[in-house]
TrEMBL record:
The active site is at H37. Pathway: Cofactor biosynthesis; (R)-pantothenate biosynthesis; (R)-pantothenate from (R)-pantoate and beta-alanine: step 1/1. It is an enzyme of class 6 (ligase). GO terms for molecular function: pantoate-beta-alanine ligase activity. This is Pantothenate synthetase. It comes from Planomicrobium stackebrandtii. Its EC number is 6.3.2.1. Beta-alanine binds at Q61.
Amino acid sequence: MLILQTVDELKGWVQEAKRAGHTIGLVPTMGFLHEGHLSLVEKAKAENDKVVMSIFVNPAQFGPNEDFDRYPRNLERDQQLAKGAGTDVIFAPGVEEMYPRESQIKISAGAQAEVLCGAKRPGHFDGVLKVVTKLFHLAEADLAYFGQKDAQQLAIIESLVADFNFPMAIRRGETVREEDGLAKSSRNVYLSSAERNEAPHLKKALEMGRALVLQGQDPIEPMTQYLSEHTSGKVDYIELLDYPTLTAVIQNDAILALAVQFEKARLIDNIIFQPKGELDHA
């Protein structure tokens, strides 16, 4: 496995891989890897000749007073896990390498970023699109892999690729969970032991909400009450939307998503499903 840290190194490797006729799968990450990331590598390995994983904590997607400085980092551990999963190349640039000058061109995520996490994190998804656009071009990926836990991010990136005719496709990876149902996340390390015991109730609330939707009921208030009773966290949002458009009127698939703020960790989770019949959710 190669460890590349500069744009020129990555571009040189990509040129050689393309000359050899190899397809490239890209797994963008911010590091501190867990089984969710590794499952994406395994999927990429099965569908491509070569797998590139990027490890870059992207400052462009962090707002003021967010956790950029304390975001967990352990490159040596990440290298071992990535190698074990079959990664061919890790691209781990520094901030100055990725952003050598102030960007003159801005990318706006649009209406899909105005709900769910985007409503409380203005500019976050603009920063996500900035870094993935650079990574897609640098890696010249045939396929790129993103997990459904970050479902809003996934939907917005799918729109980017479709709207601007990127010569590639996005592959979705299912949310990987702990045995008790908690979605794997690098930020889970921020939870206290008591909060960690409470955290599986996020998935239980989603399952309860899905059952209510399928019965034709609005799940928001019952889910909010359930989380208030079973966790010490503060409910940031619970929303039921069409997926992947993230609009209010559900046409086909629906996403039931939530965010809960604990003392040092903001956890998100969701389930994507197809409601029975037609729903008109406002």
